[in-house]
Amino acid sequence: MKRFITVAAKHGEEVLIFMRNAAAGAAGVDAYTWLKNHLQKKQIPHNDQNASHQNQLQHQGGFVSFYIGPDGKWVYVNH
Questions:
Q1: Residue 10, beta-bridge partner list
Q2: Sheet of strand 4-11: strand arrangement
Q3: In angstroms, rounded to a whole number, what is the distance separating the alpha carbons of residues 37 and 14?
Q4: Residue 65 in contact with residue 17, Cβ under 8 Å?
Q5: What is the 8-class DSSP label of residue 24?
Q6: Residues facing 75 on adjacent strands
C-alpha cells in the first residue's frame, strides 16, 4: 500500500496533514498505525487516539486529515 502525506497548509506551527488511504478497511488501520509510528520516530509529541477514532479512520477512505496544533499534538479530523 502506498501512503501519501502532504503538508497542505502551514500557519506558524499549525500544520494540516492529509493522508490518502489506498482503500478503506484494513488499509485505514494500517495508515493510522503508520502515521502514529511515523510521529513517534520523529519524536513529535502526539495524542494517541482512542478506538472510536481508529474505527472512524478505518471506514473513512479517501482523504483522512490530522491536525497538528501549536502544542505539537495531533488530532484526527473527521470530514
A1: 15
A2: 4-11, 14-20, 63-68, 74-77
A3: 20
A4: yes
A5: S
A6: 67
Half-sphere exposure of 78 (CA within 13 A, CB side): 10
Q: Which residues constitute the domain of residue 22?
A: 4-77
Burial class, 6, CB count within 10 angstroms (exposed 0-12 / middle 13-18 / buried 19+): exposed
Distance CA 59, CA 47 (A): 20
Q: How many residues does the chain have?
A: 79
Tally of domains in the chain: 1
**76 is written with which cell numbers?**
484526527
Region of residue 44 (phi > 0: left; psi between -120 and 50: alpha; otherwise: beta): beta
Q: For residue range 37-64, list pLDDT tens digits in order.
A: 665 665 544 444 433 444 444 444 444 4
What pairs with residue 19 in β-bridges? Answer: 5, 64
pTM listed for this prediction: 0.31
